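### Sample
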Amino acid sequence: MKSKKFYICCFITCSIFSILVKVNREKLYGIDLSIDILLGSSPSFLYLLGLSSLCTIITEQSKPKSDLKGSLLLMLGALSYEIEQYWFSGVFDFYDVIATLLAFFVFLLFHIDFTHLKKSESNSR
């Protein structure tokens, strides 16, 4: 139950922050290069982390590994989109690829931690 609450909070937080970044990033561009990189790539991180959390909430009742498969498919889809942009738009943002991979690994760390937590709670009963 703790993990479901966490994933719901993670989804809501990522949704709010991604909207805030999307709305305000035009105003904040040009202040500093590191802020520009963060503002440009944070939506990729937030979208993947939020959607992976949503995928976990939806598939929690089904097989335990299906949420990991869903998150992996989301990551592969996001990476394919970044690569596709290179051919059709001529733009390739390396920082978006890093943000996407980082979001997947952060989700994976949380998911592994909650999976071990569930196993230890079920073993103690």
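The chain has a mean pLDDT of 82. This sample (VanZ-like domain-containing protein) is used throughout the tutorial notebook.
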